[in-house]
Amino acid sequence: MFVKYKAKHIIICELILILILSSVLIKQGIEYDQAMYASMYDTEKKFIKWVSFDVSHKAMDRAYRYDVETYDSQVHLNWIELLAYLGAKYGGDFSKYKEKHMNDLANKLINKEETMESLTENMKYYDYYLEAYSAVLGGMVGEYEIEVADETAPGGKRWEKKYGLKAFLPIAKYYPYSHFDDFGVSRSFGFKRKHLGHDMMGQVGTPIIAVESGYVEALGWNQYGGWRIGIRSFDKKRYYYYAHLRQNYPYNKSLEIGSVVQAGDVIGYLGRTGYSRKENANNIRTPHLHFGLQLIFDESQKDSVNEIWIDCYDLVQFLYKNRSETVKDPETKEYHRVYQFIDPVAQDYIKHQIYKYDDEDINIHIYE
């Protein structure tokens, strides 16, 4: 009898302990979710304050191809939505990515078994990943016009309307470069800090290309980046930073603050300037382009301790598929693109004068 009573008492105690432990774990889970949400969003102004862009180039490529392949279909798959779904599924960790996951998702949508709304209805962080990934990739796919080679056409070129990738690798076509994932590596010039960009090693004078259409927001000398250019996307979400440009001749001569550039334009030339308060100093040992991408959800983030810079290694690998071919003008010594390009977003921006400018004060150029 005593043994039975003791056994019953032990079982009750164990159940009580399990209930206490469960409540603690549930509370910790809730607190973790709250902490995760707080780390991603500014709870007062409701904007994203942190993004870790971990999407692999393979995932980007497959999602992009689904987007283009279904463009004229009944169900047009949006590549950013596909990536956001998987981002929410993986908790942002794309080391878990398998092409089967992308294919299964796409097939459900194409066959109308599910909609993105029904699939994501109970995904707590889908909206976050959709907004975050849209900020990174939002201006890179769409409709555009571009010149293509055609021997039968006057001048050997003709215009063609297309839908697809309208963002370009920052290094011109046919120019060699090397790179590795160096985001977050320590730097010591000036003060100890992390490398918040992506270095692409190449030859001095290599034409540097505008990745996306936008307007020049910064142009000049910076003691860390040397001669550098900062280009803001028209939706103001992205700030592209091109640094360590060539000594004496860093930029395309037509550029000024406020200049509108289109994706694929030549904006400057690779060099090794920087690490000096004195302008035009060549203090970088290895010639390279420092390419950075800052996300801006609120203007308070632009130049502050709350800046959001992302790892561009996989993005650069993805953009390799689209490189702008350039040619040198023997008279001006300036490089320009071979095939001209019309981005409707740039045209609409200029037409509506979203950015206030005066033609006499600011050199607006649509085509080089």
The string of secondary-structure elements, in order, is HEEHHHHHEEEEEEEEEEEEEEHEEEH
Helix content: 25-40%
Structural class, by secondary structure, is alpha+beta
**Chain-averaged pLDDT:** 86
Note the gap between the termini: 96 Å
Beta-strand residue percentage: 15-25%
Number of strands: 19
Figure out the total of helices. 8
Instruction: Please summarize the sheet with the most strands.
Output: 8 strands, antiparallel
Residue runs with pLDDT of under 50 for 5 or more positions: 22-38, 188-193, 354-368
Q: Round the Cα radius of gyration to an integer and report it.
A: 25 Å
Shape: globular
In summary, what is this structure?
By secondary structure, the chain is an alpha+beta fold. It has eight helices and 19 strands. Helix 2 (57-69) crosses helix 7.
Question: What are the SSEs and their pairings?
Answer:
Elements: H1 2-40, E1 41-42, E2 47-48, H2 57-69, H3 79-90, H4 99-110, H5 116-120, H6 126-137, E3 141-149, E4 157-165, E5 177-178, E6 186-187, E7 193-194, E8 198-202, E9 207-209, E10 214-222, E11 226-233, E12 238-243, E13 260-261, E14 266-269, E15 288-295, E16 308-309, H7 313-319, E17 326-328, E18 335-337, E19 341-342, H8 344-352
Antiparallel strand pairs: 1-2, 3-4, 3-19, 5-8, 6-7, 8-15, 9-14, 10-11, 10-13, 11-12, 12-15, 15-16, 17-18
Helix pairs in contact: 2-3, 2-7, 3-6
